[in-house]
Amino acid sequence: MAIKVIAQLREVKLGKNPGKKFVMRPDLYVPIAEKKVFAEAATHSGISAGVIKAAWDAAGEVIRTWATEGHSIPLPGLGTMRFGVRSKAVEKLEDVKANLISVRRIIFTPNVDVKDELKNTSIQITCLDEDGNVLKRVTSGDSGDIEDNENGSGTESGNGSGSGSEGGNTNGGNTGGNTGGGGDGGDDGGDDLDKN
Question: CA–CA separation, 100 vs 120, rounded Å?
């Protein structure tokens, strides 16, 4: 298996060096229907799809309830999930108000197995010209570093240590500026005040 990415030649008008550049984006993935997920899980477990769906629905209800109470919830086989906020930092007690919160966040921390799976999955890049014609295909030779959203660092090496730099987005694509180093896209310079 491989993650598919497209690098397409486009006119970039923003930034220090505008001009024609190859811009990367994930290849479009077809969403998998919920029904298919339950059917596949049933095949792997020997438990009926209906029972799996009922259990999943019940677990989802518990996860939503506990997460909104401030708990970090284990997602078996995947990692943990919790809610948090991003906000501005202030010096004076009287300045602490609800309007300091700029965004509510869902924080997912993958477990080691999920990180290892992503680290070891190759990335296939298809290069396209402006008209969508294939110019070449390459397999990425990147180090496989994983972004560590939990610690606010942009990359995480295989041994679990962070590099301390945040690339400005959380989804690994090229949307840019989603969580730039200390505020949403750097707009408020705030701190994370995550619920634990």
Answer: 40
